[in-house]
Every structure is written in C-alpha cells, then in structure tokens.
Write a structure and sequence with these properties.
- Pfam families: Citrate_synt.
- It catalyses: oxaloacetate + acetyl-CoA + H2O = citrate + CoA + H(+).
- InterPro entries: Citrate_synth-like_lrg_a-sub, Citrate_synth-like_sm_a-sub, Citrate_synthase, Citrate_synthase_AS, Citrate_synthase_bac-typ, Citrate_synthase_sf, Citrate_synthase_typ-I.
- This protein folds into 2 domains: 18-226 and 358-368, Citrate Synthase, domain 1, CATH 1.10.580; 231-340, Cytochrome P450-Terp, domain 2 (Cytochrome p450-Terp, domain 2, Orthogonal Bundle).
- Helix content is 55%, strand content 3%.
- The protein has 17 helices and 3 strands.
- The chain has helices at residues 37-43, 46-55, 61-73, 81-86, 94-108, 118-144, 157-166, 177-190, 197-206, 212-223, 231-245, 251-259, 280-295, 302-315, 318-322, 330-340, 347-368; strands at residues 21-24, 29-32, 35-36.
- The protein has a 3-stranded antiparallel β-sheet with strand order 1-2-3.
- The chain binds carboxymethyl coenzyme *A.
- The site of carboxymethyl coenzyme *A has 19 residues, from loops.
C-alpha cells in the first residue's frame, strides 16, 4: 500500500493552509497575522491580540471598545455550572475539571452551537474567550474551598482574572498593575502557535461538524500532556526537585541524567519541534520574570537563579547544542506564574485560557475555507493477512 505518505508525528505534512500565525524556527521568529510577537507583547493588550487573531487586523479604538465590552458582557457562567463543579473531588486536577466544564458549556447554549453558522461561531467565540477565566478561577476556588468570585466588569481581562482568583467577598482586592501586565503578557505569548498538537486536535475535532465548545474541550484535553502545555507545570516541578537535592551545585548531576538515554529524564521547558533556535516567547518571558520578581522584591529568588544557571549550562553543553535545544516558552513562565501566586497545578489551565482564542481563530479559519473536509488520515496497514475464524475450542 504505497499510496500514502507515512509521516509519524506529522514531521513534514502541512495539514492546512493558514494566514494566522507564522513561525520561522531557524531564526526564532513568531508573528501573529504578520506582527512580531515582541511588538504585540510590548504595544498591545490581550484583547487587542484576540481581535487580531480572530479578525486579521488590529482594532482601532472604537473597535477595541466594542469588542472589550462584548467580551465583558459574557464573563458570567450559568449558575448551574457550580453544581456540575461540585461533583468533582476537591483534590481534582484543574485540567480534569476544565475538560469537563468547557465541554459542558455546549449544554447551556445548544440553540447557538451550529459550527457551520457564522453567527453561531461568532457568539460561541465571544462566550469562550469571556468565560474561560471565570471557569479557571472557579476550578481553583473550588479546590481550595473558597467561594467563587463573580467577574468585575470594570477590570481589564487580566485584572478581572486576578480578582476572581485572589479576591474574597469579605475584602476589597487591589489588582497590582505590574502583575496584571505580566499576566496579560503571558496570555499574549500563549495565544496562538499555529498547528501544534492541541490546535490540530481542535481542527480535527471541529472538522466533523461538532459544536465549538466540544472542539475546544478536545483542545484542552490535548494541551494537558507534559510534552505540550503540561510542560510548564513539569518544568517548575523539575526546578523544585533540583532545588531540593541541593540547588545550583546539583545541576551537573541533573544534566548527566538528562543526557543518559536510559534515564527518560528530560530537561523540561527545553526543545521544540519547530524552533531550532531560542524561542522568542522564552526571551520575553525571562524579561517579564525579571520585572515581576523585582516588583515583588524577589530578585534573589533561588528558583529563578537556578533556572538561569541551568539554562546557561545547557546552552554550553554539546548535547543541547548539537540537537539545537533551546528554552521554550514554558521554561520561565512557571516562575512568573508562581510569583504571581498561581499554584503549579493551575499553570496548564492558564495556558488553556490563553490558547482558547488561537484554537477558535484556527477553527473558524478551517470552517470558512471552501476546501475544508472532515479530517480523515489514512494508514499503512501492517497487521495480519486475511484469515478464517476458528471455533473457540480450536483456538
Ligand atoms: N531534554 C533532553 N533531550 C531532549 C529534549 C529535552 N527537553 N527535547 C528533545 N531532546 C532530544 C531527544 O531525546 C532527541 O534526541 P536523540 O536525537 O538523541 O534521540 C532530540 O533531542 C530530538 O528531540 P525529539 O524528541 O525528536 O523532538 P520532537 O520535535 O519530537 O519533540 C518536544 C519536541 C517539545 C516534545 C521535546 O523537545 C520535549 O519533550 N521537550 C520537553 C517538554 C517541553 O518542554 N515541551 C513544551 C514545548 S513548547 C510549549 C508547548 O508546546 O506546549
């Protein structure tokens, strides 16, 4: 059966045509709709970035205002959601909760979830972008036993998320502008990354004509894995482990384990299928890390020091150099999130929240493409030749 090209891991197969995100892996460049990520992260906020990814152009002031107020109007979730949430154990992983909650949204909007109807797609997009922070914060509050905080519409997208995460009803919560800006930047840096595993999952899932909430729930499930979005959690846990073993002095020993092919230990937050150079998001994340730690008076944070030292040693090591392994976005994002106060097991939930807009933009692009078909890969069959079933007594 030589009819099909065999390409495990899609190393050389373009699954679609896209106008959304461009990555030059050799140069370490990332562009959303033609705009360099560095410029977006410096000059725009997350909602402007969402507008850009969805519509192809940055909004002007009027468009931005309209889009923000539309998103703001949809930040609450149906009160029934909290009863669904209550079915989970308190120690459930937030990503287990998120896969359930996002899928469940489809049950609340079943009159407007026809993926082939552009109006339905538009309102579903707004609902998802608006409600993800509410759901992530609810999952967190539930696991720590605190009351849910309703969204506050006068706050920014990131500010409102901080309020829902860290506010309590008995006290006023003051959003720190530096933390708000840092979180907003985390959202921008994670907003899209062309045809990665979770985005391809969303496209494939949506190609069957399922509703947008179900397709995004599939993306959340895929993102959870440690080789993908789960790497931020794994990277921080790795740093904690090295720290526990003795910190900077133990880096050499750890690197030795990583290089040992029988050990199965990876340097988490390093390496990328497409980037064979420094991930531009990692650079921006390291900058943000500096800013946040300085703001909080944590410049001497031993974990940040350890991460920088680990990076330095790896980048000089022949193993990493020859394989072109550089830090990726997840290497520093955990340290920033931890400094903001976000618990480690919620890191991937934050990634899902931010990536939702990318998933939707990609899904909408696919559905709008006149050439789009259901995704249906073929296989090279390597199993048994035809044979006859024997009666059970003769098997
Ligand atoms: N630590 C040690 N060795 C590594 C690492 C690493 N982090 N990443 C790749 N390698 C080695 C790998 O063992 C292989 O060596 P050899 O050629 O001797 O067999 C070589 O480098 C090529 O790697 P690969 O696994 O064939 O590359 P891939 O494109 O299939 O995998 C990856 C890419 C991101 C899954 C992988 O680099 C990895 O597992 N990194 C750690 C997890 C991580 O940080 N993931 C986040 C990715 S960025 C954000 C996101 O997508 O969510």
């Amino acid at each position: 059966t030589g009819m099909f090209t065999y390409d495990p891991g899609f190393m050389s197969t373009a699954s679609c045509q896209s106008t959304i995100t461009y990555i030059d892996g050799d140069k370490g460049e990332l562009l959303y709709r033609g705009y360099p990520i560095e410029q977006l992260a410096t000059n725009c906020d997350f909602l402007e970035t969402c507008y850009l990814l969805l519509n192809g152009e940055l909004p002007n002031a009027t468009e931005k205002e309209k889009f923000s107020s539309l998103v703001t109007k949809h930040t609450m979730v149906n009160e029934q959601m909290q009863f669904f949430l209550r079915g989970f154990r308190r120690d459930a992983h937030p990503m287990a909760i998120m896969t359930g909650l996002v899928g469940a949204l489809s049950a609340f909007y079943h009159d407007s979830t026809d993926i082939n109807n552009p109006e339905h797609r538009e309102i579903s997009a707004i609902r998802l972008i608006a409600k993800m922070p509410t759901l992530v914060a609810m999952a967190y509050k539930y696991t720590i036993g605190q009351p849910y905080m309703y969204p506050k519409n006068e706050l920014s997208y990131a500010g409102n998320f901080l309020h829902m995460m860290f506010g309590v009803p008995c006290e006023d919560y003051k959003v720190s502008p530096v933390l708000e800006r840092a979180l907003d930047r985390i959202f921008i840096l994670h907003a899209d990354h062309e045809q990665n595993a979770s985005t391809s999952t969303v496209r494939l899932c949506g190609s069957s004509g399922t509703n947008p909430f179900a397709a995004i729930a599939a993306g959340v499930a895929c993102l959870w894995g440690p080789a993908h979005g789960g790497a931020n959690e794994a990277a921080l846990n790795m740093l904690y482990d090295i720290q526990k073993e003795g910190g900077v002095e133990k880096i050499g020993e750890f690197i030795k384990k990583v290089k040992d092919k029988n050990s199965n230990v990876k340097l988490m937050g390093f390496g990328h299928r497409v980037y064979k150079n420094y991930d531009p998001r990692a650079k921006l994340m390291q900058e943000t890390c500096n800013e946040v730690l300085t703001e909080l008076g944590l410049e001497k944070d031993p974990l940040f020091k350890l991460a920088k030292e680990l990076e330095k040693i790896a980048l000089e090591d022949e193993y990493f150099v020859s394989r072109k392994l550089y830090p990726n976005v997840d290497f520093y994002s955990g340290i920033v999130q931890r400094a903001i106060g976000i618990p480690v097991n919620l890191f991937t939930g934050i990634f899902a929240l931010a990536r939702t807009v990318g998933w939707i933009a990609q899904l909408n692009e696919m559905i709008g493409d006149p050439e789009y078909k259901i995704g249906r890969p073929r296989q090279l069959f390597t199993g048994s030749a035809p044979r006859d079933v024997k009666p059970i007594a003769q098997r």
